[in-house]
Write a structure and sequence with these properties.
By secondary structure, this protein is mainly beta. The protein has four helices and 24 strands. The structure holds copper (II) ion (CU).
Length: 474
């Protein structure tokens, strides 16, 4: 990592370049000190010390970027740079991000704030920052080649606009976008309403995170940037289960969760034990009459969704993407289905040649979660997570919403596992088992397959050109 002194020296050197293409006279003032973050932990909400007050959000396994006020302008400093991100304990990735982390820090401002963002490029190639969803002057939209020249390595650019619309936003590069997003360059942006908003309710907890995905071979550190769909790490804020922090709330808290999708596929995000409303999209808060209760909402590519619910059921509630392959880690998909295959005969023959040969998957794959299988140095088990009753057999986009009666307001610490009240847990039946009563159908199929001897079905295809007037058989 570059020391702060080195960095400031360099930042000072590029100030001259900035002023040459200055956005306004005020922008020529010295840059705000870039703030770096080394930890992948969920940081407490950043209560605003200056500017208009608001209720800050909590970024899952992330943090909010501090700012300074400069003559009424809120100034931030983003540094695009290579970072080392711990994706789960024991597994780190070499990504690109901002200010020491991927994703970059969350930026929080208030409606009608004038915002100035200094972006310093410490990547080996040029970049830009696009402020996804914002109303702003076209020249501030951050599209390399279209609305601005790209920011060359070592250079600093200034973006400045008024945050006109309250809501949920993202930022990401719009220069060599495929590579830079595959490497983890993205961040969250919240514009809080200036005053009580008819469509934006006050909440007790407000969580944010981005959906992202990486393809990193077991034992490797750098994502494969050419992967289009077959990623092997499905992450929330560049963390995978069991590395994703839990969302810890107090019983009867009103909870908002804001989710943005910068992967290449959609993610149906599912919450257990509660119903929620989708109260906002990237376009802003949804009109109240258009909201309906859900337990799963699909977040399509490039979209944002904000969900809200009353956390009125105590417990440890699973919260995850409902695509089951997205709750697995570093998994190869070229594995044959072995359920129901009796290996015994073949195994005895193979073990004569390969003494430590291991049978996989003949009774399903749950064994994978507990098998003491050696892993390469830098990867995460495919299915893991030590729960109070055994392995949770999950990975990727999975975590837990912990609702507790005694969680203090404003306390985000993990309260530990839920203690189930007596008589409220699934249990093993140890009595006698009745013989199953076979159901006999009363009706018949609408189109019985009578006179259709299965063994003799043959498809006859006649090509129109050869058939002389008849149409093709099916
Ligand atoms: Cu998913």
């Amino acid at each position: 990592m570059v020391s702060r002194r080195n960095f400031l020296g360099r930042a000072g050197a590029v100030t001259a370049a900035v002023s040459a293409a200055a956005v306004s006279k005020v922008a020529m003032a010295a840059l705000p000190e870039p703030v770096m973050q080394a930890s992948p932990d969920t940081m407490p909400p950043l209560v605003p010390g200056s500017g208009h007050p608001y209720n800050p959000v909590v970024t899952l396994n992330g943090w909010t970027l501090p700012w300074r006020m400069n003559n009424g302008v809120k100034e931030f400093h983003l540094v695009a740079e290579p970072v080392v991100r711990e994706m789960a304990p024991g597994f780190t990735a070499h990504l690109w991000g901002y200010n020491g982390q991927s994703p970059g820090p969350t930026i929080e401002v208030v409606e009608d704030d004038r915002v100035r963002i200094f972006v310093t490029n410490k990547l080996p190639e040029h970049t830009t920052v696009h402020w996804h969803g914002q109303r702003l002057p076209n020249g501030m939209d951050g599209i390399g080649g279209l609305t601005q020249p790209a920011i060359q390595p070592g250079k600093t650019f200034v973006y400045e606009f008024v945050a006109r619309r309250p809501g949920t936003f993202m930022y990401h590069p719009h220069a060599d976008e495929m590579v830079q997003m595959a490497m983890g360059m993205m961040g969250f942006w919240i514009t809080h309403p200036k005053q009580k908003h008819p469509l934006i309710d006050a909440v007790d907890r407000d969580f944010v995170f981005l959906l992202n995905a990486y393809d990193i071979d077991p034992g490797a550190y750098t994502p494969k940037i050419m992967t289009m769909l077959d990623f092997n790490l499905w992450s929330w804020n560049s963390r995978i289960f069991p590395g994703i922090d839990t969302l810890n709330v107090r019983k009867n808290d009103k909870v908002r969760i804001r989710i943005g999708n910068l992967t290449m596929t959609n993610h149906p995000i599912h919450l257990h034990g509660h119903e929620f409303m989708v109260t906002g999209t990237d376009g802003g808060p949804t009109p109240k009459g258009t909201r309906w209760p859900e337990v799963t909402t699909d977040v399509a590519v490039g979209q944002m969704r904000q969900i809200e619910f009353l956390a009125d059921e105590e417990g440890d509630w699973a919260f995850h993407c409902h695509k089951s392959h997205h709750t697995m880690n570093a998994m190869g998909h070229g594995v044959p289905t072995m359920i129901g295959v009796d290996h015994r005969d073949v195994v005895s023959k193979i073990t004569q040649l390969v003494p430590d040969y291991m049978v996989m998957g003949e009774r399903g794959m749950a064994d994978m979660a507990e098998m003491p299988m050696p892993l390469p140095d830098n990867t995460a088990p495919m299915m893991s997570g030590a729960g109070p009753f055994g392995s949770v057999e999950m990975g990727g986009m999975f975590t837990v919403l912990k609702v507790r009666r005694d969680q203090k307001p404003g306390d985000y610490k993990d309260p530990g596992w839920f203690k189930h009240p007596a008589g409220t847990m699934a249990y093993e039946w140890t009595g006698a088992l009745a013989e199953p009563a076979r159901f006999k159908a009363e009706g018949t199929s609408a189109m019985p397959a009578k006179n259709m001897p299965a063994a003799d079905i043959e498809v006859q295809v006649r090509k129109p050109a050869l058939g002389g007037g008849g149409h093709a058989g099916h």
